[in-house]
Each structure stands twice: as C-alpha cells, then as structure tokens.
Amino acid sequence: MRLEDKEVIKQTIKDKLLSNFGKRVDNASNDELYRAVALMVRDKIMLDWSTTIDNIQKKQPKTLYYLSAEFLTGKFFETNLTKMLKRDIYREACLELGVDLDELIAEEPEPGIGNGGLGRLAASFLETLSTFKYPAFGCGIRYEYGFFSQRIEDGYQIEYPDNWLRDGSIWIVERPEEEVEVRFGGKILEQWQGGRLKVRHEGYESVIAVPCDIPILGYNSKCINTLRLWKARSPEEMDFAAFNRGEYIKAFDKKIENEAISKVLYPDDTSCEGKKLRLKQYYFLVSATVQSIIKNAKGVYPIGELPDKVAIQINDTHPSLVIPELMRVLMDEEEMSWEDAWDITIRICGYTNHTVMTEALERWSIDLLAQILPRIYMIIIEIDDRHIHQLNRVYPGQRDRIARMAIINYGQVNMANLSIVGSHCVNGVSQLHGEILKRDLFNDFYTLYPNKFKAITNGISHRRWLLQANPKLSSLITEAIGDSWIEYPKDLIKLREYCNDKPFKDTVAGIKEENKERLSTYILMHTGIKVDPKSIFDVQIKRIHEYKRQLLNVLHIIYLYQRLLDNPNEDIYPRTFIFAGKAAPGYFRAKLIIKLINSLAKKINNDSRVRDRIKVVFLENYNVSLAERIIPASDVSEQLSTAGKEASGTGNMKFMLNGALTIGTLDGANIEIMNAVGRDNIFIFGLTAEQVNYFYKTGSYDPRKIYEGNMAVRRAVDALIDGTIGIFRDLYGYLLYPEGSMADCYMILKDFESYRDAHIQIDRQYRDPSLWRTKSIINMANAGVFSSDNTIENYNREIWHLSKMDM
Ligand code: 26V
C-alpha cells in the first residue's frame, strides 16, 4: 500500500510538472518543482476544505470569527504535509526522483503578514481550531507587502519591501463572487420614516473587498477552516477620459488610492495620510467581515439568533470598529432597535488585550473618524452617551473616574474603552497580565463589571514548534512515550519518567548537538561567523523593544568581555549569544540597539584575546522560518522584560518545549513556566512587578546610584561611550541622563546584578551535562499545558461556546 502510494505521488509530481510548466524533473527549477508538489498537495486539501465550508453553510453551527490585523502563519507547504501525515512519504518520493524536499520547502515565500506575538498567536489558534473541528474563520487583510524585509548593512537595520506575493501564492483562493462593498466618507442624512429614523449615506466612496481564502489544516483532521484575508479592489479601473488626454498616471490615481488599503501592514502613521490609511484598513477589515457574516445569515435564520450562531473575537483593539459596524448593519440595514442591536453586539463580541504599553493603546481622533467614517462616528457618540449616562447614575459626581472610563475624551476615541464596553468578555493573555488589567489598567471597568474580566494564558502550536520544527526530537519522544502527545500535548508529562534515564538523556543531547551544528552552518553561511556548536547557545529572538531589554543582555555581554580582557584566563564556559528581531522602522532607539549588538559582535568576534570563549551573532530578517531553525538549537532562552510589561510572551514556551532552559524575569507567562517546571529548572532574576510598580509610583528609582556604586555596572555602561564599541551616547543618556523622561525607565541597571548571578548559575550548571539534560527534559515534559490546544479549550469554555463539528 505504502509503496503504491509513493509511486502514485511520484507519477503525479511528474504530471503536474508537465501540465503546468511543460517541464520534466530533470530540467525543472526548484521553484517549478515546489509549485508542482504544492499544487498536488493543494488538490488533496480541496475536498475536505469544501466539505467543511458546506457543513458550516448547511448546519449553521455556532462559528467563530477571529478578527486580527496580523496572522503570522509561517509557510504552509511543509505544515500542510505534516498535518496530512504525509511529510515522510513525500520526502521519500521526492528523493527517489532525485529531489530534496527541504530545497522545495525553502522555495515557498514566507507570508510575513504580522510583526510579533499577537499575529503568531492568531495563527496557532486557527491551527488548533481546525484540529479540534471547531468551526472558525480567521479574518484579516491580504497585505500585498508584509511587515518589511530586514537586512543588516554596516550594522544598521535597513528595511526593504517584503513582496511576498510577487509570484502569487499557491495557497490563496480568491472568491470574487463573495466580494462586498465598503464605504468611506460622504454625508449622513437622517429622515423619520414610518416612526423610524432612516439613515441615508450619500456621496461616499466605495472600495470592493475581495476574499482571498487560505485553507487552514488541522492535524489529522478533516475539518479545514478558512483564513479569509480581504483584498481591496477599486470599483473603477481607470479614468478613461484622463488616459485619452494623455494623463496616464492621473488616470490611475483613484485605483491606486483605493487599493493602497491592502498594500502594506502597519503603514507609518506619523503623518495624517498614514493615520487615514490605517483607519481605513481597520474599517475595511471589519466592515467586509460583518457584511459577509450577515449575508451568510440572511434568510437562513432570524438575525435575532445571531449570538447563538456567531462569536467574534477582537484581537487587540485594531479590529474594535467591529462593534459600531455591527450596530450600523443591525440598525440601518436590518432595522433593529438600538436596544436589540446593542444586546446582540455585546453578546457576540469578546476582546483580548495584548499589551499594557500605553503607546500601543490605540486612540483615534474624532475629526478623522467623522471624516472617514461619518456613520460609525455617530454610533460611537451614541454608545458613549449611553455609557456616560449609566456612569453618572452609578458614580454621581465622580468626574475623574467618569472621564477615565469615557469612550470619547479630549477629542479622541479610546479604542480599549470602546472594546470593553462593547464586549461581554475582556481577557488578558497570562495570569499576571489578567491581574494587571483588573487591578491597574482597566481597574475602573473591573469594579463596574467584575464578571467580564478573565485571564486566559496564551499557547503555542506544539505541532509546529516540536513535531515539525524538531523532527528528530519528536521521533525520539514518540519512541519513548508513544505518539499520543501529538494530539494530547499534556501527555508530554510522561517524559518525566525519562529525566534520569541515561540513554534517553544522551540521545536528547545528541539531537540538540545536531540541531546546533545545523544552525552553526546557517550562521556561517549568513554572517561569516564561525561558532562552536559545543558552546552554550544563548538566544534572545523577538521584536526589538526597550521593555524587552535586549540592552540588559548586551550590557552583560560587555561585562563578560571586560572580565576576559582583565583576566585572559578567566574561566568562562564558551557561549554563543544569538540575537534576531526587527525594530519598527520609526523606532530610533530600537534600531540603535541593533547597531549596538552588531558593533559589539564585530568587536568581540574579532578580538583574539577572547579566544572564542564568547561570540555574538545577529541573524537578520527574523521570521517564523528562522525561529523554527533557531529554537530547536537553543540551550538558553532569554526572557528579560521588565516585570509587568510583557503581557505573556510565547517564545518562552517554544523554547522550553524544545528543551531550552529559561533565564527570565517574573513576568507574563514566565511565572507560569516557573510554576510548571519548578524553581530549580529555570533561572529567575530581577524585580517583581510589584516592586517595579512601587518604583514607578514613588519615583524613587535612581539608576545613577547603582552606576556609581557598582563597578561592574559602571564599566559596562561606560563602554557605550568610551569608544571600545563605538559611540552610543543616546543609550548612555537613556540609562543615566535622559531629557524629559525617567532615567533607565525599564530598570535595566537595577536588575543587572541578579541577572549576572543567574548567568553564573547557568555557566556552572551547564558544566554538569547530566544535570542540565535532566532539567531540559523536565522543561519539555511540562510544556504541554502551553499548547494552544489548551488555550483554545479555555477560550471555548469561557467565551465562545462552540461545538465540535461531526466530520
Ligand atoms: C501595536 C502597534 C502600535 C502601532 C504600530 C503597530 C503596532 C502593532 C501591534 C501593536 C500591538 C502589539 C501587541 C502585541 O503584539 N502583544 C504581544 O501579544 C502576544 C500574544 O498575546 C504576547 O505574548 C506578548 O507578550 C505581547 O507583547
């Protein structure tokens, strides 16, 4: 049977090559081969996909719409093969044709339509939803250009457009028959007709939203849900008269303006035009989604039953205009009363907050809203009026509190407040984050609606991050404990029995080393830096941000370097510090940190006095594929955020799943990881969130005292400006003498010493390979609760109440 399958696969690959490209295996390019095999895989997906869509259509089970500005799916080809349990047989079939499957996998362009954890979380949720056969749509924007492609030039981050769709995508199916019209601008006319206020929208401009659907496979599951990304199409192709007058560029002005909506993810919004475009993007996403939801419901069930049929999850505030948009459609088009529409809206919507950083909490100016979305603006005013009315009743005379809770304030719409008021559930993404929302950021709302607030800890797709990204370790685990962990990740706990099993430990160590060798080759090829696979691979990969404190890591590396220079015989266990991550293009300081890392790398890697005991590497263009390569090869996972600032973190979970040990603060999900593995199997350091808060509240933090009193700190900080690694006056000033803000506002210097102590522990413990392996296996064994499988069951129980489809 297996043999026959393989022969069929080989023949079909040949047929696809011939019919699509007129090529044979021996004269086809890798790209053509990738497309041929991918097309074949896609053929196999189509039947189950259409059955899933039909089932949802016919049976109308309650369906989730997960709205998100980002979906960081990673590549699809290998994942789809893995989910279909076909990766090995395709690999063999390819091999027999003289083709290396890995080379084909590399051909697929990476869809970079997200920038961080929020987007990656959305993608892992979709994977689990399909595996569990829960009916769901991911709804987003089909950005033509992803976040940006990062290159390092002379140590600096340089951004290039990420044209991931240049050659089309095998996995996207456009559905023009399901397109909808989205309206911007114009005027709103109100008329009383038959005892009802009728609203007419005139003088608007239309943009057509075209669904670009991507099938999302579950593991060994016939349920294939859809990621629906909306693409903007201009209703007018061009101004023919202008073209004939010779105004060739002007003839396309409107088309270009309209279609700019789905051009790029997070266009720079420092200019007014940029803000306008962002707002248009978000409304485009929510309006297209709401219209398609209502279209689907019409004539099939009474609109009043919508909350039994639909759940909408608002992934951070970017899609929060879904609340007024639902109100608009229910009232203006379905002729419902305000009260009925509001009741339905609240029962449908849930809001997940993903950050407490004030600069990331969105506010839109009312002028802009009134201009671009006049009807939505009117509805927001009404939502706010009724909300304030209620607040005045509950809190008479408490003007400050009411101002804090208002949706419209100081000429701006506070999108988090709108989301809280318009949803039945608000959740944080780790236990600590949930607590901070209740006690701090949203405390006023928590007092008023205590039952709305929940904490649901994030999770990761263990099937991608272990089964797919670390195939050797996966096979070993399966040999030891069986394969139930693939579908029941908590079964990984059975590995605990092996944490003192010598042969098992040795094999785990061997696999780690192989992964490290593979990464070393990649590093050499991409940076020219030769690293020692036997050294500790100490890794910090994530967006570059002050609060994530890459700078703390850097200062510690400087400190180690200085120690080596002081004492060439200093016994430091060889370490390779690996960094990767993108800085937002307009974020000057984050970009400077990248330059600092690269300058430091250049200095240390070329200093013979260091005798290769420490190496520093910055890998460019961090994305899902690069993470898949780095994480299985890591020994140490750096999770350094100032306590209270990282909502959850999910990288931390991927590392532990692959046997890396965490060095981290008591922040986000690090705390839960510590509780799962035990204090001895993680390196915790630094202030608690409470202590951090105390410093902020009292204003009593003084980094200059630390600088003056601690020689190690002082020398490391001085190195930023003494010319050893270049001149980084901004970063020096930021730590000690900033203009107009708090010195060292993320308390790097305060945490330095305990961070250094934790590293001393790592250095010591790594020297005892047996002990280290045991700890590593304990981390793997306890990673099961951090699977998105667990997270989704929690969301479903607490918020969505979906049922599994029978298929
Ligand atoms: C804000 C902004 C502000 C304007 C520029 C573009 C932009 C893009 C995204 C955001 C919100 C970022 C929120 C975010 O990614 N939060 C991360 O969510 C993860 C999943 O819940 C969580 O693990 C991380 O701790 C959290 O930082």
Question: What's a quick, concise take on this entry?
Answer:
The chain is an alpha/beta fold.
Shape: globular
Percent of residues in helical segments?
Answer: 40-55%
Unreliable residue runs = none
Query: What does the average pLDDT come to?
Result: 97
Gyration radius over CA: 27 Å
| Most strands sheet | 10 strands, mixed
Distance between the termini: 25 Å
How much of the sequence lies in strands comes to 5-15%
Structure classification: alpha/beta
Number of strands: 23
Number of H- or I-type helical stretches: 34
Small molecules (ligands, ions, cofactors) in the structure:
ligand 26V
Task: Outline the structure in words.
The model has no long low-confidence stretch (mean pLDDT 97). The protein starts with a helix and ends in a 7-residue tail after the last helix. Strand 22 (661-664), helix 27 (668-677) and strand 23 (683-684) form a beta-alpha-beta unit. Helix 11 packs across helix 14 (374-394). It is built from 34 helices and 23 strands. Strands 1, 2, 5, 6, 9, 10, 11, 12, 16 and 17 form a ten-stranded mixed sheet that branches. A six-stranded parallel sheet has the order 20-19-18-21-22-23, with helices on both faces. Strands 13-15-14 form a three-stranded antiparallel sheet. With 807 residues, it is α/β, with parallel strands linked by helices. Bound molecules: ligand 26V. Ligand 26V binds at residues 115-118, 121, 266, 316, 354-355, 360, 429, 458, 646-650, 668.
